[in-house]
Design a protein that fits this description.
Shape: globular
CATH topology of the largest domain: Rossmann fold
Order of helices and strands: EHEHHHHEHEHHEHEEHEHEHHHH
Strand content: 5-15%
Oligomer: single chain
Structural class: alpha/beta
CATH architecture of the largest domain: 3-Layer(aba) Sandwich
Distance between the termini: 10 Å
């Protein structure tokens, strides 16, 4: 079977792309405006190239700090590094982006375009926090630029990912415009709200996945089988990671404390090396740590902490009427609630379920909840890594979508 080529728009750290690469799709280009996310993409491009050359030991040397990133990237063809395009997608930049993609493309064709515009303008929480309900946010109209890529490259199919709130934004007006623009560009499509937990991801994460195809192809939306086996965060996902206290851990090498679990092996989250990285927990003050202990105790009784019911000495926010669930414990005996980019600001919404550790989850734990492989390295430090992880599509979910696209094409 010939290799299928794709372009990833609004690529972030490459969670969606990772799933497609794992199913042997070939990335022509990733387009992303955030510089640190682009650094992560380039590092991952380096990994996949070295893996194809049976030279992953060089990548492992980078993770272990034995060679610098400059030395790592010196082993990679320049064209591959240039395939990550660090640019905002706008009317002003789109021709320049087309030109760079065309250089990468050469005589090849684009089979599929993947990606989804930033979701803040469509998210229900984002609209609730904005006095204008995000009505004037320019991100509402990035779909027009996505459609321009469809018109320019005429791929057989595309995958457009976003938050469920896109359906209700401005009483559904935005989504109707998106549908009309796609149809006008010559594509049929369908969409569903898919949940990452149905794809084996240990996270309750609902997303709109819109899949489209050229009108003449006469295709249908794929049927996805739901993952039926039940796994748990503490027993199956976190079990082999060393215990941490708040403010401890390392962005560098961290060795596992026990053998892999069935879940980690089956999903490929733990893969081929005897260490991971970025198992680092943020520091907390004593006030927050006391709240964490209370939250874990309440969660053990099946209750979520209501911020307004805390002892007055612990309440530091004036607002005790909305967002009273700002302190939440990750469900250690099931799947996590949704990981979002706000985890970069504080970890209160992601308290570790083990009271003895009394902290928020580490970078690596967040990455695992999102189903990133343990050798996936997020550039830019702890805060940048959390943001990249929270914005990503879970690779395990992306892999299942890629498999169906591959079967279809």
């Amino acid at each position: 079977m010939k290799t299928l080529n794709y372009i990833d728009l609004f690529a972030g750290a490459g969670g969606l792309s990772e799933g497609f690469v794992q199913k042997d799709f070939n990335p022509i280009a990733h387009v992303e405006m955030n510089k640190l996310a682009c650094d992560t993409l380039v590092t991952r491009v380096a990994y996949h190239y070295l893996k194809s050359q049976n030279k992953t030991s060089l990548y492992h040397q980078y993770l272990e700090g034995e060679i610098s990133r400059t030395e790592l990237l010196s082993k990679i063809p320049s064209k591959l590094k240039d395939s990550v395009i660090n640019s905002e997608i706008s009317d002003k930049t789109i021709d320049s982006i087309f030109s760079k993609i065309n250089t990468q493309l050469g005589n090849k064709k684009v089979d599929i375009i993947i990606g989804g515009p930033p979701c803040q303008a469509y998210s229900i929480i984002g609209r609730a926090r904005d006095p204008k309900n995000m009505a004037d946010d320019p991100r509402n109209f990035l779909y027009k630029l996505y459609v321009k890529f469809l018109q320019e490259y005429s791929p057989k199919m595309f995958v457009f990912e976003n938050v469920p709130g896109i359906l209700s934004a401005k009483n559904g007006e935005h989504f109707e415009k998106i549908k009309k623009a796609i149809t006008k560009a010559g594509y049929n499509f369908d969409f569903k709200v898919l949940n990452a937990k149905d794809f084996g991801v240990l996270q309750d994460r609902k997303r709109i996945i819109l899949i489209g195809w050229k009108e003449e192809l006469n295709l249908e939306y794929p049927t996805f089988k739901s993952e039926t086996k039940s796994y748990q965060i503490l027993k199956d996902l976190f079990a082999d990671l060393p215990n941490l206290q708040n403010g401890t851990g390392s962005l560098g090498v961290v060795h596992y404390k026990k053998e892999s679990t069935e879940y980690l092996s089956n999903t490929g989250i733990r893969n081929c090396i005897d260490f991971t990285t970025q198992h680092l927990a943020r520091p907390n003050n004593e006030n927050d740590l006391e709240i964490y202990r209370i939250a874990v105790d309440e969660w053990a009784e099946g209750k979520r902490l209501n911020y307004a019911t805390l002892p007055k000495r612990l309440i530091k926010h004036k607002n005790i009427t909305s967002f009273t669930n700002r302190f939440q414990v990750v469900n250690g005996n099931g799947v996590s609630h949704t990981v979002v980019a706000h985890i970069a600001m504080d970890g209160h919404y992601y308290i570790h379920p083990d009271k003895k550790q009394n902290r928020s989850i580490s970078v690596r734990e967040a990455a695992r909840i999102q189903s990133f492989p343990d050798d996936f390295y997020f550039e830019g430090g702890r805060t940048a890594a959390f943001k990249q992880i929270g914005n990503a599509v879970p690779p395990l979910m992306a892999k299942a979508i890629a498999q169906k696209i591959k079967e279809t094409l």
